[in-house]
Fold this sequence. Notes:
Oligomer: single chain
Strand content: 15-25%
Mean pLDDT: 94
Amino acid sequence: MNSTKPIEEPLDSEAVLYPKDLTKWDRGGVSLAVVGSPISHSISPLIHNAALEDMISQRSGLSDWRYFRFEIPSECLEECLPEFSNSGFRGLNLTIPHKVEALEMIDWIDPEAAAMGAVNTLVFSENGNCDGFNTDGYGLERAIADVFGISFEGASVVLLGAGGAARAAATRILRSSCCELWIGNRSPKRLDRLLEVLDPESGQRVETFALGQLPSGLPRSSDVLVINATSLGLVAGDKSPIDFSEFADGAMAYDMIYNPSETAFLQAAEEHGLRTANGLSMLVHQAARSLEIWTGEDVPLEPMFMAARHALGEKGQTG
């Protein structure tokens, strides 16, 4: 897959590319990309290329690797995947709306990704197969360990939301042997659908509740972790999805949203003495895991964090 053609880098890795650019792809070397629609807001190229540049400075084996972004609508994804594979792409990151629909288009799915019902990382092998992974759960677990110094094993976790992000989080939390998982959402139907696909271990307690009606048994002690996997906080004026007034000082609140960096959820948690962190750390760790899968090498985190903070400070956008 890795061509010996000289790499002149005529392409701007921050440019938004389209299917027409793929049909005439002649870059040579090893390419990577994030694929979605819309995609212009994505800072993935900045994060991944920052890590690649650092890795290249340490060793020459990755000197022809580069990461791009493609605007690919849903109706074009299945047709484009073989073109990516045949054009020197080692793999792709998938974002909205492709993370679920791609499941039917690939040759092998990692068991955790299958349990999550979505893939965000594709790998093209030499034999032409396309394998799918999901690094979101890994990114969340590493982020929680980094910012709060705890693991999911034996933990009491309150998870807010019942969509795709919540499913990925719940799957990882349960697989990492949490003690109890409480899932809150506005729609009981979505909660029921989520419960149907989760597979708790024997002895793990899984409970659900309606947001706005916190049950008396909900854990609120200082070792409780509350994770926001809802979209509340993306829009100015959104209110916190949960009332923290009865939570103990020192409990932990993690928002999977990273832009804006300070959401109503985090503000409310801070006002009641909880320790808080936003989703920037998850963003970086899930990206680093993708790069590890593609390269088979350790990935430097600091350049990725620096690039992410710089990009978000400059652009002030989500994605």
